[in-house]
């Protein structure tokens, strides 16, 4: 029986890398989609050392065709996608009076729109029991005005997850946003590894009582 597969979109050294490691430790093979080849190489070596078979691709996920092609290649190679984890967001330090409309739309294309792209590309390779997960943030409810576009992205991507979950549930696939209600740190309750544990717990729940948002408060 082939091992389950997770595709991590926006793969990097933070939460997304910790999610990849958490699933690899549970016996998943891993596909990584990111923007930095060196980071992907380092993460690949780590995951392979944990026994995972790893594929990776460098792509700008706001380039719809490039992102679709990368995810499709992963699916065709593995024959299945069991979990799709979406991590990208843009941090632009501009308040609402200095943020241009074009900049806001550019950020939303990354933090929200790209989720549509990769889910649509992954869907043909997903079956009942499949999961879509997203790294959410308390910025959706408590935005910092100094980076106004981030709150818009996190509110938008959470809303989109709700719609995705309702749509995919018809085929036994569920979607969830894990809302991190704290600031990421190197120590304590909000390290990337602790957040990854929350993602694992949210994704592996039974369908009974499923919710499309799970808050992580560091507990």
Could you describe the 3D structure shown?
The chain has one domain (5-216): Rossmann fold (3-Layer(aba) Sandwich), CATH 3.40.50. The chain is 43% helix and 17% strand. It is built from 6 helices and 7 strands, in the order βαβαβαβαβαβαβ. It has helices spanning 15-25, 37-49, 64-78, 101-122, 148-168, 192-203; strands at residues 5-9, 29-34, 54-58, 83-86, 131-137, 174-180, 213-216. The protein has a 7-stranded parallel sheet with strand order 3-2-1-4-5-6-7, sandwiched between helices. Helix 2 links the parallel strand 2 and strand 3 (54-58). It starts with a strand and ends with a strand. InterPro entries: NAD(P)-bd_dom_sf (IPR036291), SDR_fam (IPR002347). One of its GO terms (molecular function) is oxidoreductase activity. This is SDR family oxidoreductase.
Topology:
Layout: E1 5-9, H1 15-25, E2 29-34, H2 37-49, E3 54-58, H3 64-78, E4 83-86, H4 101-122, E5 131-137, H5 148-168, E6 174-180, H6 192-203, E7 213-216
Parallel strand pairs: 1-2, 1-4, 2-3, 4-5, 5-6, 6-7
Task: Report the radius of gyration as a whole number of Å.
Answer: 16 Å
Give me the side-by-side strand order of the main sheet. 3-2-1-4-5-6-7
Kindly estimate the percentage of residues that lie in beta strands according to DSSP. Answer: 15-25%
Q: How confident overall, as mean pLDDT?
A: 96
Indicate the overall shape. globular
